[in-house]
Design a protein that fits this description.
The complex is a heterodimer of chains A (357) and B (612). Chain A has twelve helices and two strands. Chain A is mostly helical and 357 residues long. The relative contact order of chain A is 0.17. Classes of the chains: A mainly alpha (357), B alpha+beta (612).
């Protein structure tokens, strides 16, 4: 392990900006959910209380990860990969909920393995790249995990993972010619998939409706909601718009509710904070001596940035609906904890590179 | 090797796309904001609510009692029906679904709803369903079908469902959306838990623009054991049949009730009320003929909590407890073991000079009786003597109602608080009540008001007192444990409040159990009913009751007992309305249920000895 001089907060030290950004995103989520809460019952069914509990859990996970050195994490990456493949396979044997097999029902909460699959895929690829061996089996492993997630079916997560894979391959030593070839092959495979009927009818509907002239109703409603937020938002307005019909506004469509309540100023604020976060992460790419660090950080940046991009694009009608949460804003334990894992690992990378601010 | 310069290209793509997104939101929120707000005001959306599947109901062993399955139903979008196509749709429905009458079609097409449920199409095959969907105004949605596995069994506990009325809307606002409400039983009591969340079909004009799936209600786990419930129902039916064969009653005997509750917890293991009904009939809508017929025989009344009967001799345990606790025994006796002579009647004079004779049910008397044998043989004279002593000692002062206070302490005169709707409280009469009744219900009371004779009636469970079978079971539970708590049906109920009764100690419980045991053994009133159990009867106990009714109504037959003296687990109470002698009818019914509870082979209900 590399030597470190300074420690701050927690047993192994904490990077202040990473940790505080993590907290600020959580607090923004509370404020947004607070408006969407009906009544102030103090139990676990209350969305705000749920999210606060998830935040506390996530902070715990964040600090837990400061104990694990990046080298140890790397060593166990293959094991994590096997575990997540088993979990994803087991998931396909459960009874479908609303037509999909996406969650394990654990009493008061649902556990969504594909949220963690995203993180593990990043570690797995990074580990693969720094080992000097043939790169071709990689596609077999990644193909397997993508197949399992598509079978749930969860198109949104599959696409995100696909993009993360592309980005990480792109920054590796691969020849541009080969890269283009791979991208073309994958696109071809995707359409073969469509032909073979392996994509859920529902998702096909969504894709078809996207290419048709009619605008999706849910998207038209979320656009109206965002639009009526104006510059400063309607957070302090007593008479709220009630004629708008936005589904899953606490999860996939929460950004619409956020934009409505906090306006364009709020949108700029949250995107600026994420920009700061990504900018900080980019510094590792210049400082660190470890390629593993760099690949992991690239993976995390693309993972989170794509998620934000796809989420905002779908609710503003730029892309067809896929059903992805907005990191750290949407209500949901699995998404929150898996993002905490990303922040935790990032934090560890920072302190191993002696960056504490 | 990590290639930093390639990352820069990647970052460039991201940053450009973020700028594109920001511009997009800028155009939405800043450039088009006022336009959007206007559009929202103009937008009219209508929502049609789809009934969600209710939660399932299970018994204590996770046997399914009520299920909800989703079946495809044909709905018609009435907004798409106009002058031009109305006849076409009418013809289509008439031709394809011949059970639809003209009046049904009228009703469908004159409805003010957006969507109208035409029929269940579970019987149609895939192609037929496809054919329906080709027509623009037809929509197919899943609609839940409630099914009650055991039909009539436990129908009063489970209850039935129906279309909500304006009162239901007020009580359960959610039912405006769900369109179905529990009308009785736990279906009503746990409506909010069971009902689920309605699905939403969103209309913009005549087009469906969005659809949100309904969410199932939560399941309900009951304390009921369906096996015991079935045995108890059979036993009660057998007993009622025998009673009809053996008595020449003016009326047909058909009403009765059995209650079995756990002594320690108050869990209701079984609750039978007869006559019963099949709740499945309400799912598709019961015909008014069937409804009226069932209503006439009071099949919808849960007599276990709504039947009000004079308790007769099963009430004697209240005086038994009072005598023990206050040391209040008949004149000349100072302890439970002292004996008095019962000559079959009691004659006495009042201060005003009037003379009265009370005759025991056994004309030649019970001989020398003490407290134990007075319970064993159900000797009225012994208890009348106690009443007389109370009257002579306390008449007119605050202790005059000491017996009533003991009764109320055991829960008589008020609801038990069981988790079911429409429970009745019954009445424990006293001077105040009679004074009230002389004004409000003068037909019920004599002009003289409350007299010593009323107290004498009360002490043997006669006269104006009324109780429910559940109250009696609950009172026996309290006397046998020293704790009172509300009986309950929901296995996962949050908290059961147990209240210690400090006037009931372990010695008393032991006395009571051993005296109840005398009743089911030699010389006891229920001896013949329990004879078939042989030596097992040594561990059983109970009390018979035969309550007289006003007018030409036959006596109410009662039995209240426990499944075991050494280790009491359940209290069993059986009532047969107009069933006659408790020892002849209610006791053998209870015996068969106890056989089931203690794992003995069941023997048929046999008409017992007529006592009391």
């Amino acid at each position: 392990m590399r030597e470190r001089k300074i420690t701050l907060l927690g047993p192994e030290g904490t990077n202040v900006s990473i940790f505080f950004l993590f907290l600020i995103f959580n607090v923004i989520s509370w404020f947004t959910l607070f408006v969407l809460t009906e009544g102030i019952e103090l139990n676990f069914n209350n969305i705000l209380i749920r999210q606060i509990v998830f935040t506390l859990l996530s902070v715990g996970v964040f600090f837990l990860l400061t104990y694990i050195s990046i080298e140890n994490l790397r060593k166990y990456t293959d094991s994590f990969f096997i575990i997540i493949v088993i979990l994803l396979a087991a998931l396909l044997r459960t009874t479908p909920k609303a037509g999909v097999r996406r969650w394990f029902d654990l009493g008061p909460i649902d556990f969504q393995p594909s949220e963690f699959a995203k993180v593990i895929v990043v570690l797995f690829i990074a580990n693969f790249f720094i080992q000097r061996k043939s790169k071709y089996p990689l596609f077999l492993y990644l193909g397997l995990i993508l197949m399992l997630i598509l079978q749930q079916p969860d198109l949104g997560t599959s696409i995100i993972i696909g993009f993360v894979i592309f980005s990480m391959i792109f920054v590796s030593e691969i020849k541009i010619r080969n890269f283009v070839l791979i991208v073309l092959l994958v696109i071809l495979a995707f359409f073969l998939f469509l032909e073979a009927g392996l994509i859920n009818e529902n998702q096909l509907d969504r894709i078809n409706s996207f290419f048709s002239v009619d605008e999706d109703f849910q998207q038209s409603q979320s656009k109206l909601l965002i639009s009526s937020g104006s510059l400063f938002g309607q957070y302090f307005e007593l008479e709220k718009v009630s004629k708008i019909f936005v589904p899953v506004e606490t999860t996939d469509f929460i950004f619409a509710a956020y934009a409505y309540n906090f306006g364009f100023i709020g949108v700029l604020l949250i995107l600026f904070l994420w920009f700061v976060f990504f900018f900080r992460l980019t510094q590792i790419l210049s400082i660190s001596n470890s390629d593993f660090d760099k690949f992991v950080i690239t993976g995390f940046i693309t993972l989170l940035a794509f998620q934000i991009i796809v989420n905002i694009s779908t609710i503003t009608g730029l892309l067809p609906l896929t059903g992805l949460p907005f990191p750290l804003l949407s209500l949901g334990g699995s998404s929150m904890v898996s993002t905490a894992v990303i922040f935790g690992i990032t934090n560890r990378i920072f302190i191993e590179n002696n960056l504490v601010i | 090797m990590f290639l930093r310069n390639r990352y820069n290209y990647l970052a460039l793509i991201f940053v450009s796309y973020f700028i594109f997104i920001i511009y997009n939101i800028f155009s939405l929120q800043i450039l088009n904001s006022s336009d959007s707000i206007k559009r929202i005001d103009q937008q009219t959306l209508d929502v049609f609510y789809l009934t969600p599947p209710r939660g399932e109901i299970y018994d204590t062993n996770n046997e399914k009692l009520a299920t909800s399955s989703l079946e495809p139903h044909l709905f018609i979008n009435l907004r798409k029906i106009n002058k031009d196509n109305i006849d076409q749709y009418k013809q289509y429905l008439k031709y394809n679904f011949q059970e639809l009458k003209n009046s049904d079609l009228e009703e469908i097409f004159s409805s003010k709803e957006i969507l109208y449920l035409v029929r269940n199409i579970n019987d149609l095959d895939y192609l037929e369903r496809q054919a329906l969907q080709e027509l623009d105004a037809f929509e197919i949605f899943d609609y839940p079908i409630r099914e009650y596995t055991y039909m009539n069994i436990a129908s009063h506990i489970i209850g039935y469902i129906g279309k909500p009325t304006s009162e239901d809307f007020e009580e359960f606002p959610n039912t405006i959306k769900t369109g179905i409400v529990g009308k009785s039983g736990v279906e009503k009591y746990y409506e909010n838990q069971l009902s689920g969340k309605a699905g939403e079909v969103v209309f913009k004009g005549d087009e469906i623009v969005d659809f949100i799936l309904p969410e199932s209600g939560e399941d309900l786990y009951l304390t009921i054991d369906i096996e015991t419930q079935i045995v108890a129902t059979e036993s009660l039916l057998e007993g009622i049949k025998l009673a009809n064969e053996n008595f020449e009653s003016e009326n047909i005997i058909q009403k009765g009730s059995v209650v079995v509750i756990d002594v320690d917890t108050g869990e209701v293991l079984t609750m039978v009320s007869l006559p019963d009904f099949d709740p499945n009939k309400f799912v598709k809508g019961i015909s008014s003929f069937d409804f009226n017929q069932l209503n006439r025989i009071e099949a919808f009344n849960n007599f276990a909590i709504q039947g009000l009967y004079p308790p007769g001799s099963v009430f004697k345990v209240v005086a038994y407890w009072l005598a023990e606790n206050e040391g209040l025994f008949p004149d000349g006796i100072s302890s439970r073991s002292n004996r008095m002579k019962c000559e079959g009647n009691l004659s006495f004079s009042f201060i005003d000079g009037s003379q009265q004779v009370y005759n025991d049910w056994k004309e030649d008397g019970h001989g020398n009786v003490n407290l134990s044998s007075a319970i064993q043989q159900s000797c009225n004279v012994y208890f009348w003597d106690i009443a007389l002593k109370i009257w002579r000692t306390y008449e007119g002062n605050e202790n005059e109602s000491i017996l009533q206070e003991y009764a109320r302490n055991l829960g008589f005169g008020k609801v038990t608080g069981i988790d079911l709707p429409f429970e009745k409280s019954g009445v424990v009469p006293d001077r105040d009540l009679f004074e009230e009744w002389t004004i409000t219900r003068p037909e019920l009371v004599r002009p003289e008001g409350w007299l010593g004779g009323d107290l004498m009636n009360l002490i043997v469970g006669q006269g104006a007192i009324t109780t429910t079978p559940m109250q009696v079971a609950s009172a026996y539970k309290t006397l046998l444990t020293g704790y009172s708590s509300a009986p309950y049906l929901d296995k996962n109920i949050d908290s059961v409040q147990k209240v210690k009764n400090y006037d009931i100690n372990d010695d008393f419980i032991e006395f009571l159990l051993s005296d109840l045991n005398l009743v089911t053994n030699k010389d006891g009133t229920a001896y013949f009913a329990f004879e078939v159990l042989g030596r097992k009867a040594n561990d059983i106990g109970g009390k018979t009751g035969t309550a007289q009714n006003p007018g030409d109504k036959n006596n109410t037959s009662w039995f209240a007992g426990v499944d075991s003296i050494s280790n009491p687990k359940y209290v069993i109470v059986t009532v047969v309305d107009e069933g006659g002698s408790g020892s002849a009818v209610a006791a053998p019914i209870s015996r068969r249920i106890i056989q089931h509870l203690i794992g003995e082979d069941l023997t048929p209900v046999k008409f017992g000895e007529i006592t009391e």
